[in-house]
Amino acid sequence: MIIKAVKFRKDGFYTQPFAFGGEEDGQYDQNIRYRGTLQNYLIDTGDEVILVDTGLPAGTPEEVPDEKSLGFTGKDICSYMDAFKALGYKPEQVTKILLTHRHSDHSGELKSFPNAKIYVNEEELDAAELKGISNIVPVKFTDGAYYNFPECQKIQDGIHYIKAKGHTKGNSIIIVELDGLFYMIHGDITYVDEALYQDKLSVVYDDRAAARVTQNRIREFIKNHPTVYLSTHSPQGYENLEAKRVMDLDNPVPTVFAAVDFSAKKATGKYVCSVCGYIYDPEQHDGVAFEDLPADWRCPRCRQPKEKFNRA
Ligand SMILES: [Fe+2]
């Protein structure tokens, strides 16, 4: 069995208020920017090709960050599907997809794998991002506890799908046991590893109390088991994977801050939600410019406020 990162965006960033501010808003420094990337993961068991999440939909425009941007998902390396194919696989080979959560940077290409059963927490099934997707297997977590997590579904020996609510209401994580280590593919429990070391919640959650319970369980698990923490939004995810680096919560890996390029690209008038990827196109809204939307306007898909949007 081998785990690979499917890398499709680089050179992004997440500011400290975005990555840390979920419980204590207002005390963090917007000028502290942690590195950001986008990658999902692939598990090749030898018998099967299993994906954890499936990237952004093809054609999602890059954002244009500025000094006020709270987060920036980065520049395209290539599309998710090209990143997947570059690993040497064909879409037809994928037999299972384990979805951590509905957000479009995780669910974007679910439709592109014709032979895959798509495992989704049953509480996530009403998500707009999943409309029209067939082959979904609603997960009911009937296999009891997985260590200190109360509810899990065993996918096969050594691969468990675990209820981890909070970031979204049907959020889940995947733990792969391999050569004595526990590889935790956690979706967006944190955006940057520093948030887990310092035990901060990000500002993105459907249910903050549940997100706190989940993060406590994850830290407890990591204290008690040799865990490699595989993030989606931070290069630390694939760096930890490549180094088989066991997370030690008391000894953080030194932070490398983002080098940010704010050189302006020509703006299109479109704006992109840095959380869920929703695109606001004035042409689809009677020509109303994003800047002219009321201050309390929210992302129609994920309910985030205007300041989470970046120009495209
Ligand atoms: Fe997310």
Q: Can you walk me through this structure?
A:
- With about 300 residues, this protein is of the alpha+beta class.
- It folds into two domains: about 1-245, Ribonuclease Z/Hydroxyacylglutathione hydrolase-like (Metallo-beta-lactamase, Chain A); about 270-310, Single Sheet (Rubrerythrin, domain 2), CATH 2.20.28.
- Helices cover about 15% and strands about 25% of the residues.
- The strands form three sheets. Strands 1, 2, 3, 4, 5, 6, 7 and 8 form an eight-stranded mixed beta sheet that branches.
- A hairpin with a 5-residue loop joins strand 14 (about 270-275) and strand 15 (about 280).
- The chain starts with a strand and ends with a strand.
- The relative contact order is 0.17.
- The model has no long low-confidence stretch (mean pLDDT about 95).
- Fe (ii) ion (FE2) binds near residues 101 and 167.
Write the layout of secondary structure elements.
Blueprint: E1 2-15, H1 16-20, E2 33-44, E3 49-52, E4 71-72, E5 75-76, H2 80-86, E6 94-98, H3 104-107, E7 117-121, E8 136-139, E9 152-156, E10 159-163, E11 172-178, E12 181-185, H4 193-197, H5 208-224, E13 227-230, H6 236-243, E14 271-273, E15 279-280, E16 309-311
Parallel strand pairs: 3-6, 6-7, 7-8, 12-13
Antiparallel strand pairs: 1-2, 1-4, 1-5, 2-3, 9-10, 10-11, 11-12, 14-15, 14-16
Fe (ii) ion (FE2) binds at residues 101, 103, 167, 188.
Strand content: 25-35%
Individual helix count? 6
Q: What is the CATH architecture term of the largest domain? A: 4-Layer Sandwich
The whole-angstrom Rg is 18 Å
Mean pLDDT: 95
- The total tally of domains equals 2
Distance between the termini: 39 Å
Helix-strand topology string: EHEEEEHEHEEEEEEHHEHEEE
In the CATH hierarchy, what is the class of the largest domain?
A: Alpha Beta
CATH topology-level fold name of the largest domain = Metallo-beta-lactamase, Chain A
Assembly state: single chain
Biggest β-sheet, characterized? 8 strands, mixed
Globular, elongated, flat, extended or rod-shaped: what is the shape? globular
Q: Give a count of the beta strands, DSSP E runs of length 2 or more.
A: 16
Structural class determined from secondary elements: alpha+beta
Q: Into which percent range does the helicity of residues fall? A: 10-25%
